[in-house]
Amino acid sequence: MSYKSIHKLGRDEVIINKSRFIGTASPVTNEEEALEFIEKIKKEYKDASHNVYAYTIGESGNLQRFSDDGEPSGTAGMPVLNVINQENLRNVVVVVTRYFGGVMLGAGGLVRAYTKGAKIGLDNGLIVEKSLFNEVSIKTEYTLLGKMENELSKNSFIIKDKVYEENVILTVLCKVEDMDRLTDLINEVTSGNSDFNIGQSSYYSINDGKIVV
Known about the structure:
Blueprint: E1 2-6, E2 10-16, E3 19-27, H1 31-44, E4 50-57, E5 63-67, H2 77-86, E6 92-99, H3 106-124, E7 127-140, H4 142-154, E8 158-164, E9 168-175, H5 179-189, E10 195-207, E11 210-212
Antiparallel strand pairs: 1-7, 2-3, 3-6, 4-5, 4-6, 7-9, 7-10, 8-9, 10-11
Helix pairs in contact: 2-3, 4-5
């Protein structure tokens, strides 16, 4: 229920032997989004020498495409795709734009340059773990609130929201695969008198154990 991707659009650039390389990366959910993004970047940098791209779609990375966009075969698109795969990323597209600076880089130089362009774009987009969470609403008595919050925090469950009514309603994010563990915890804290509901499931970005918003 988890995979690595990037959290947001990322862009950075580097000058290598007078050529300007601009790496732009974006999270996507399907191939159509990836192709639309590529066309958008091509229009933005329509005067560039090359707009090389690669993308991988699906949580298992079953759909992968790349283009050298006029660079020598194997020196551009494949190195960009290799960076994506080396980072084990999914549902991501990368375009590395090149403005030729007049100095030939050679095959090895191109591979290194496009590898660098892809890496800086992805890093700027913030590499995260995408995990599927259930949103769980827990109704708890005020006398149990401190204990409930402490146990949830100690067990790495994320409290998203708190509403104070006749009882306190906690909105907790729980990885789908951890639902049994959360249920046991709630029952233990409330001595079996638990009142909770499982809401919608959504993917969230996780970095260093914390949700990225």
